[in-house]
Specification:
heterodimer, A: about 110 residues, mainly beta, six-stranded mixed beta sheet, globular, B: about 120 residues, seven-stranded mixed beta sheet, four-stranded antiparallel beta sheet, about 0% helix, about 50% strand
Chain lengths: ~110, ~120
């Protein structure tokens, strides 16, 4: 049972345009959400996060939106750059859940075309 | 000056063998983890260690055993390797979530294990 779902295995976007990556979750206990970026042959690196008390968090070109009622979050990248080509993982956790770690989605491979 | 480092990066071995993957973190974090990324690309938690105490074991076969000699190290030992163990194994560390801490994970580069 996938508690965190990323239904698009891949996404191709032209350089300069907006990239929108989507993520859905089923566990209503999750109250903290993160996006990780992964290049080939490297470990995932933290990108941006959002607490369930917010509906938006922005960091430079990256914005994460959270819709709690729909159990849906999205990552917007604008403008998209070639270096953004990577696999993006959505992850969720329960704050105060101790060392339970993160539950990850399957990832979306973002390809930025020149 | 890598924050979370794991060795070896690549490991090719025969079925039935016993192997280990080492992990070290220099972030001063309390908790370390092992994640497995299988052929379907899911990142699934296997273990976490907090102050040398196993916190989670997500139905992982007992052929897999984590060993933590100290807070900065969490090694993964695998006995009697099977074909299905082929995967990329990621070590990670974090401060446990709670208060201002969110449990953000810092990952190593991964160790690709291939069992022939």
């Amino acid at each position: 049972d996938q508690q965190v779902k990323q239904n698009s295995p891949s996404l191709s976007v032209q350089e300069g345009r907006i990239s929108i990556l989507n993520c859905d979750y089923t566990n209503s206990m999750f109250d903290y959400f993160l996006w990780y970026k992964k290049y080939p042959a490297e470990g995932p690196t933290f990108l941006i996060s959002i607490s369930s008390i917010k509906d938006k968090n922005e960091d430079g070109r990256f914005t994460v939106f959270l819709n709690k009622s729909a159990k849906h979050l999205s990552l917007h990248i604008v403008p998209s750059q070639p270096g953004d080509s990577a696999v993006y993982f959505c992850a969720a956790s329960v704050v105060g859940g101790g060392a339970d770690g993160l539950t990850f989605g399957k990832g979306t491979h973002l390809i930025i075309q020149p | 000056d890598t924050a979370v480092s794991q060795t070896p990066k690549y490991l090719v071995t025969q079925m039935g063998n016993d192997k280990s993957i080492k992990c070290e973190q220099n972030l001063g974090h309390d908790t370390m983890y092992w994640y497995k990324q299988d052929s379907k690309k899911f990142l699934k938690i296997m273990f976490s260690y907090n102050n040398k105490e196993l916190i989670i074991n997500e139905t992982v076969p007992n052929r897999f055993s984590p060993k933590s000699p100290d807070k900065a190290h969490l090694n993964l030992h695998i006995n009697s390797l099977e074909l299905g163990d082929s995967a990329v194994y990621f070590c990670a560390s974090s401060r446990p979530s709670g208060g201002a801490d969110t449990g953000e994970l810092f990952f190593g580069e991964g160790s690709r294990l291939t069992v022939l």
